[in-house]
Each structure stands twice: as structure tokens, then as C-alpha cells.
């Protein structure tokens, strides 16, 4: 078993060194892309070379499309293809490190158990990273949906008071500039920057909808673009009807989050219940044995 661990360890370490020498410089520019949560940039170049030479993206297009779609929502559309490769390369780096640690554990223990543990963790961790990525996207979409009805109410009030749609949206953004990390207002700030940069209102609004990539935002955008030229009571009524629908969806999201929070408390409560049983039952059993 020690021989197998040594062979695998040499192949992993030697393979990384060789691949880094062959194509490391070519992929270092990709490794320098700004992206949150990456910790193994220095090790990722050989993994990117493997992905490129084996043409993994063309062999598993659906898998890469889903990851790219999620990364676009979190990090924007710029360099999304390269960031997808970088994220998958990061997953491969974790698997590579865990397999190496499994080999070292096997050498220390003298049993193949360490290698098996490393291989299993090397498969589970990438799956956990993908699940975490999709969870972040889901939370981001829910944050947008929770804030959208409140912003829409403000727009309805301002438009009803005589403001134009552009000025109403700009006023809402100005009030929330301190919340620029919120996904909805981050995209709205980009939209106002586009308007100041020369984009038409329609172009800027459509780009805002594409960046959000949330169905409710698309409905909001379509409603505004179809009705804002007419103005008057028809426009206010259209936004008011949409506001009612969005408030109902906000209630559903809030209810879902509450249920998720309650389910997360089940495990700690079970653990506490077991501890209480042990603390109460142990003295009783000891007395019975006596």
C-alpha cells in the first residue's frame, strides 16, 4: 500500500511541476482575474492546461453552462468564460491537494484508508463548491425579489406625484447609495452610470434586466418600457398592479426563508435533546446497577 501511495504522490507532484513548466505562463493572466473566494490561484495554471488540452468544455457543455450562468450573476458578464475555467480549475486544485494529503496519510498510517479518504473528499468537495455557488445565486435572486417591491412602491409614489420614471429611479438609487453591495442597487447604480455615459433609457434598462437575470425584474422592465411613454394614470395603474404581484412573491420568499431557518435549528435541538437524556439517564442507570 505504501508503494501505491508513493507512486500516486510522485505522479501528482511531478505532473503538476511538468504541466506548470509547459503551460503555466499561458494561463497566468486568467489566474489574475478578479474573483471573490478563490484561494489557490498560484496552483491553478496546470489545471487550466488540462481543461484546455482535453477540451473538457466542449465535452460537458451543460455542466459548464450552468456554472458560467451562476458566475455571471455573481461576478458580471465580463470574462465569464475565463472565470468559469478558473472556478473549475480551483475545484480541481482542491481535489489534487486532498488526494496528495490522502497519499501522505497512507504513508503515515501504513494503510490504504488514507488514500481512500483523500479520493472520497476529492470528489465531495467540488460537489460542495458547486452547491455553495448555486446557494449564493439563489440568495442573491431572493435578495433582489425582497427589495424590488419596496423600490417599486417608491417609484409609483414619485411618478404619481409628477416625477418622470428616470428621475424616480435615480431618486431611489440616490437614497440607497450606501447599500451598493445589495445586488439590486448595485445593478441600478450601473444602470444610472450607463445613462450618464450616453445610453438611452431603453438600452440601459434592458442591460439592467439582463444583468439581474431574475424573472420578476424582467417583468418589471417590460412593464416600464411598455408604459412609461404613455405616462399618466395608465402607467401608475400598471405599476400598482405589478407591485401587488411582487408583494405576494416577497411574502412567499420570506415564508420560505423562515422555514429554512426553522429546519436549520432541528439538528442543534436534537443534539441538545440527546445530551439532556444522557445527563439525566446516566445517574439513573448507575443507581440501578448499584
Structure characterization notes:
It is a multi-pass membrane protein. It comes from Paenibacillus dendrobii. The chain crosses the membrane at residues 85-107, 113-130, 265-286. The chain has 290 residues and is mostly helical. It folds into two domains: 1-137, no CATH class; 143-253, no CATH class. It has helices at 2-31, 45-53, 56-59, 61-75, 80-109, 113-160, 165-175, 183-196, 201-212, 215-227, 232-264, 266-289. α1 (2-31) crosses α2 (45-53), α2 (45-53) crosses α5 and α10 packs antiparallel against α11 (232-264). The two termini are 49 Å apart.
Task: Give a summary of the structure in a few sentences.
By secondary structure, the protein is mainly alpha-helical. Helix content is about 85%, strand content about 0%. The longest helix is centred in the middle third of the chain and has 48 residues, at about 115-160.
Key structural traits:
single chain, mainly alpha, 2 domains, 0% strand, 290 residues
Mind sketching the topology for me?
Blueprint: H1 2-31, H2 45-53, H3 56-59, H4 61-75, H5 80-109, H6 113-160, H7 165-175, H8 183-196, H9 201-212, H10 215-227, H11 232-264, H12 266-289
Protein name: Type II secretion protein F
Membrane topology: Multi-pass membrane protein
Pfam families: T2SSF
